[in-house]
Design brief:
mainly alpha; 126 residues; single chain
Length: 126
């Protein structure tokens, strides 16, 4: 394998996958009182595995995407994107270290572009 691709794989696992798992493990602690943990506990009480999965899946996906964007924001993973017009941009530079916020915030990318469910735990900050 090309060493640079191997390095990318290592950074992706370290800064995205592992961070998302650690973050979501916190929500499983009985003493955690953040909105995600409360939502998961409320869904679990109902005893319906499908209902619980419908709550957990978007939270875990959003958390994982958040950590990818945060790693890009912090320059831990450097990525460029080539638009449909052919223009290439450095996401760390052009994103002004705001990609994660633009994704998770209220009236952000999830709300504007997603056709699937998500939970806006920041809606009260509008």
């Amino acid at each position: 394998m090309i060493p640079e691709v191997e390095e990318f794989a290592e950074m992706l696992i370290k800064w995205v996958r592992d961070e998302a798992i650690r973050s979501n493990d916190v929500a499983l602690r009985p003493t955690t009182e953040n909105p995600v943990a409360q939502r998961w506990r409320a869904a679990a009480i109902k005893g319906d595995p499908t209902a619980l999965a419908r709550v957990i899946i978007p939270d875990v996906v959003d958390d994982t995407i958040f950590y990818l964007l945060q790693a890009i924001d912090e320059g831990l993973i450097t990525l460029s994107y080539t638009s449909s017009t052919g223009r290439a941009v450095n996401l760390t530079k052009e994103g002004n270290s705001e990609l994660a916020g633009w994704y998770m915030g209220s009236d952000a990318w999830r709300e504007r572009y997603s056709h699937e469910r998500f939970f806006d735990d920041l809606s009260d900050l509008r």
